[in-house]
């Protein structure tokens, strides 16, 4: 299991003492009970919502278990079975897949690709990609050059064999009306018709959307044969364990069962483990207590390049969920040791408004790479020739934590045994549960994004809509 070690936060100056955390646990345990006993029955019964503070959209909590149960009872007819079948068909037919979506409709899939696929995945020959297509993300902006660049790329491989010529288009939008994604869908569909052909739309254009809306209607009219649902009661940024994250992950050839099992493990852990041993409760206690003291910049310091997108996913989750009512910590992802040479000076000796949560990986996937001996020792590296990159990374982690501690800066560690689908399932679920728990404890509804809705209205006005 992922572990949360907050011993670096227990300090007289600038930190917390254990008794404060123990006191907080009382309120957090009430909030946990309410999440399981109040929110979920409310959702299931479609019951009345007592007031706007009552968190809704809690269906993400049980979704991984529901999907797995359904799959073990009725493999091919279950939603997960259908997602896997559709993904397998796409993998066998095309060498490129474009995934359109924005915010919660793409950030989880991007994080899964960057963490669980090989580095430089798209650059590898097909065989070394395990016969999986290259993956591209668009529809997450209205950047002319980025869209034109990808459209150009899709025209490059116009060989005669279908595998080189054809590509698949997955469009993800819960509402079905988000401008960035809708505009990209129209533009990429036009390209699809020109390069792949209208007759293959039914097979190779796959929407993931709510049970009604513009994208739903459009996909009916286009005759898309595969369409997946964003389930009711699952909000955009809480949807990574639905088809929103699962379909792209399955197209990448990732183990989606293991991913969902990881999420289930974290929910069970959150439900049953006691404070002091419960990663979710402890994370919320530490981070929220620090925020109440004015330490309201929350750093997720990831010690692996492949976790940067997971950090950005959490930036969105925290910012859109709890950045309301003039409250909510400012999330910031840093990638180390890279950012030790850019931001770390400010974090260590700048304003005392930051809490560092390190995300530390235990075992690396590849063989540890040693520095190695050289006859040209002008760089004086022969003295650490036997050391490997994981050993140097561990020295950087310990050295940084010590340096922060010496300057009275609190740090906590999320320990991930290794980066794989199961652990990523645990990580996503841990952070989603923590966000909902923190929202309930602070009296903030973590679902919805009223501010973001205003920009959409204004943008449409400027567009004359
Ligand atoms: O978390 C959210 O709800 C948002 O970030 C949405 O995911 C984002 O705005 C995209 O919305 P949609 O999926 O409706 O296109």
How are the SSEs placed, and which strands pair?
Blueprint: E1 3-5, H1 18-45, H2 63-73, H3 79-93, E2 96-100, H4 107-116, E3 134-138, H5 144-156, H6 162-165, E4 168-173, H7 179-195, H8 201-204, E5 205-209, H9 214-222, E6 228-229, H10 243-251, H11 256-272, H12 279-292, E7 297-302, H13 308-322, E8 330-335, H14 344-349, E9 354-363, H15 389-406, E10 411-418, H16 421-442, H17 450-462
Parallel strand pairs: 2-3, 2-4, 4-5, 5-6, 7-8, 7-9, 9-10
Antiparallel strand pairs: 1-10
Helix pairs in contact: 1-12, 1-16, 2-11, 3-10, 4-10, 4-13, 5-7, 11-16, 12-16, 13-16
Bound molecules: 5-phosphoarabinonic acid.
Keywords:
single chain; alpha/beta; Rossmann fold; 2 domains; 5-stranded mixed β-sheet; 17 helices
Query: What is the molecular shape?
Result: globular
- Please summarize the sheet with the most strands: 5 strands, mixed
Count of DSSP E strands? 10
CATH architecture of the largest domain: 3-Layer(aba) Sandwich
Give me the secondary-structure category. alpha/beta
The mean pLDDT is 94
Ligand list: 5-phosphoarabinonic acid
Number of helices: 17
CATH homologous superfamily placement of the largest domain: Glucose-6-phosphate isomerase like protein, domain 1
CATH-defined fold name of the largest domain: Rossmann fold
